[in-house]
Amino acid sequence: MSAFVVWIFAAYHLFKTTNNFKSEKEWGRFIPLSLFMPTFFTETGNVHRAKFLRATGYFVLLIATGFGLGLINEALK
C-alpha cells in the first residue's frame, strides 16, 4: 500500500517536472535521461525533479523490501 502512495507521489512530481523545462531546452523533453540533468529545468522544475528522484528511490526500496521479506518468509516455512 505504501508503495502505491509513493508511486502516486512520484507520478505527480514527474508531471510537474516535465512541465518546467527551460524554454531553450524543450528538446530535452524527448530524452529520458534528461531527468538526471538539472540544467534542463527551471528552479521549480529542479525542486520537483529532486522530489521525483527521491520518491522513485523510495518506491524501489519498498518493492525490494517486499520481495525480500517474501523470500525470507518462504525460506522459513
The major β-sheet equals:
none
| Coarse structural class | mainly alpha
Strand content: under 5%
Percent range for helical residues?
55-70%
- Count structural domains: 1
User: pLDDT under 50 segments (min length 5)?
Assistant: none
The shape is elongated
| Number of distinct beta strands | 0
Run of helices and strands? HH
Number of helices: 2
Q: What is the rounded Rg?
A: 16 Å
Q: Give the termini separation.
A: 25 Å
Mean pLDDT across all residues, rounded? 93
Task: Give an overview of the whole structure.
The protein has 77 residues and is mostly helical. The protein is built from two helices and no strands. Helix 1 runs antiparallel to helix 2. The protein is elongated and about 60 Å long. The two termini are 25 Å apart. The model has no long low-confidence stretch (mean pLDDT 93).
